[in-house]
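Retro notes, structure queue

What went well: the backlog is down to a handful. What didn't: a couple of records were mislabeled last round, so from now on we paste the full input next to the output in the thread. Example, using Metal-sensing transcriptional repressor from Pseudaminobacter soli:
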Amino acid sequence: MVEHPHRSHPTIVKRLKRAEGHLRSVVGMIEGGKPCLDIAQQLHAVEKAVAQAKRALIHDHLDHCLEETIGPLPREKRGSVDEFKQIAKYL
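Corresponding output:
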């Protein structure tokens, strides 16, 4: 299997490293006895950051790897691929 570095990967890595830092701070908040509401808000932010990274990775894969596999399609035949990309945002 050949690995494909994608242009979006550095951005995704930055996003995940930021989420990693936030997660470490959440652990510190729990260990420090911070209020549950504050902890829950920070956990929500971490979850959202990871979900956005996942979404970006999946969309990048669809845009590059899927296109590479099926090749360029005429506009009238792109419907299924475009629809698949749209539904993937709900992952």
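Agreed that this is the format going forward. Reviewer comment attached to the example: Residues 9-88 form a domain with the Methane Monooxygenase Hydroxylase; Chain G, domain 1 fold (CATH 1.20.58.1000).
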